[in-house]
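Obj.: predict assembly geometry.
Materials: sequence records (below).
Method: joint structure prediction, all chains together.
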Amino acid sequence: MKKIILSMFVLAMLILPVSADTIRMGTEGAYPPYNFINDNGEIDGFERDLGDELCERAKLDCEWVQNDWDSIIPNLLSGNYDTIIAGMSITDERDEVIDFTQDYLPPDPSSYITLSSGNKAAYIGVVAAQTSTIQASYIAESGAILVEFATPDETISALRNGEVDAVMADKAFLSPIVAESNDELKFIGKDVFIGGGVGMGIRESDNSLKDTFNAVITSMKSDGSLNALIDKWDISEGRY
Amino acid sequence: MYCETTFDNYAFRSLGLGERILPKTDITLCDQIILIGSGIIWNLYFCIIALTLGFISAIIIAIIRNNNYPILTRVTNIYVFIFRGSPLFIQFFCAYEIFVLLPKIGLDINLLFTTITLQTSWLTKAWLGALIVLFLNTTAYSSEIFYGALKSIPKHDIEAADAFGLSNYIRYKKIIIPTMLRNSWSSYTNEAIFLFHATTLVFFSSFPAWGQSGDALYYANYFADKTFNPFIPYPIIAAYFIFITLILIIIFKAINVYFNRHLPKERKRSINFLTNMIR
Amino acid sequence: MFEYCSEPGILATFDWFSCYLTNGKHLLFYKSFALIILLLLITAPLAIFLGLIAAVGIKSKNFLLRIISKTYANIVRGIPDIIFFLFIPITIDQVIEFTRHKIKCQDIIGSVWQGNDFIVCNIAKLPLNSDPQWIHDLYGFSLAILSFTLVYGAFAANTFYGAINSVPQSQIDTGKSFGMNRRQIYFSIIFPQMWRYALPGLSNLWMLLIKSTPLLFLLGIQDIVFWARELGGSKTSIFQYPHSDWRVWYFIALLVFYLLLTKISENIIKRISNKLYIPI
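Observations (raw structure tokens):
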């Protein structure tokens, strides 16, 4: 009898904290349409919609936290928030440090853009990317000269001002910028598949949280609501 | 020793030499010490050039401010106010944004024997753009220090020079400037340390790192990001800075001894920079 | 803000700007200016207090106390403040959480460092995960204040050390001959006199402190630099107020703010020193 009570108690201790706790969601807030700070100063975008839906399905109380990109993983590790949901591609390098849930966006291409007057081979010249992104390491290894900026927006400004020959970033981020540039910018080169889809980053020790989010992502995939969200924000070419 | 290969690969990485790809996995203590040390080259470059050029121009500006020229004094006062009244961090931001907006042209300079083409696009690179900001910044602060020292030179010293019938140039060279430097050397030592420390802001404000070549803090930050352990790279860079600051103090003390060489022992000034701060 | 702002796309220039400059994001931007002032007003007295303690420590007869105070006051002079700001908050944070973990969760065995993770039990976290966001903000801001205090306390310690030494020895000797003990000498002779000598150094320090406040942005706090960058960046039509890259205007606004702040401070300091007959 004692043992049963004890084991039930342990079980309750294991389950309870997850359902009663607040989960803090870390995001960058500077990468539209994935995530951005809207005109009211709130976090908005595809990942805001997705995260809120996931939390509702998992019956979690979620709180959004903005954090700069270059310190987003260290701050997850030190426990400032519990998940990263910031358009972060699943890579082996990152997977060594943190865990990922299953992908909630299929592998999406990265593309190069340049000025419309620019050279077609601009992507082997001076290429801008955001610091510690998969694109940055790709450029560093491709033989082009990498110029790093802290925010994705600064890379576009650098291209417009003629600082760099090309910019490399996720296609979903670049597409609206190119579309609205009045033919000032254009895509060049081939699309490159670098990462393995986008997932939520979670501490390696946080297995129960990972399982919770994996389950709700599966449920959103199977009932088509994830595809609907992808359509709404026009964020990827692939569908589940 | 395995450190030697690291040294060959990365000792001058901050200048774009050696191995192109930075260490990513299995980062050793060697990697960290050598790459951060390689970044120090940039800090020294910014510090030495900005300080040398700033020293000369600060003396000129201090003299302009001490004499009442109609427009020139006004202009220099406004310049000093802007650079002393705002944070260097914001100055970097503003300067970078303004440099970026400048038209991209080449300016040919004919030097009789050869032609140099100055590119305005160089201004957006740290080696020139940030150097200009640091130079203007230290000039403003140093000129304030020197100007204060000029004002407090005893009148009878200058009158004595007049009595000897010294020309204006000789009077400045032999009397006014040496006295000014001697009296302000403690504060100026402090300014030099501040400037050296301020060089860490370059790649942390707006100036982008090209080809992953940056200063010491750029690499320290890189390692903190990659290893997720700030407790190794930051103490390493701190040690470098303490060491070089000590050398800086030794050099400035030696110069101070030189300035005071003609004085009797009891009138010699020693540097007391820790309590003399003008920034 | 205004009623006509619901459709910004069709507004004339002036109306558009009146809406743009009063949207929620800009209001947050304006609030962050108050944050800077708040930081200055809290940090300055704390740093003065810490500096005073350290200065007395340097003059102390206790060897250990003297060494600690001296190291503290000097080491800050050798390291750029930016490195401290990247390093101190995370250290303080982990030390606090580690201590709380050891006290509150004694039953959990095993290291708090598991691979790359720093894990303390849920109730040892500070602030607690379930706390509302403003508590997290407050905690982050307190860490920032602590970091600034540590750095500027060391500067203040040097200033006070110099000021204490400037108090004429004859006065201290007089105090001794009256049979005052060390404590009495400090409180009735040195401290009241010291301020006159310390004021020029302290006012310099205040200026230095003002000019280091943009570094708040490195501490992950949404300060004026964060919002200026965020607002100034170019915006596509996903935002209500699309515009091109306007960062230069926002940074010039920050420059003007700091120029005003230092100018006002300078005038106030001048007035105080005139009253105390201290030439600066």
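Conclusions so far: Residues 9-20 of chain A have pLDDT under 50 and may be disordered.
To do: check interface contacts against the pulldown list.
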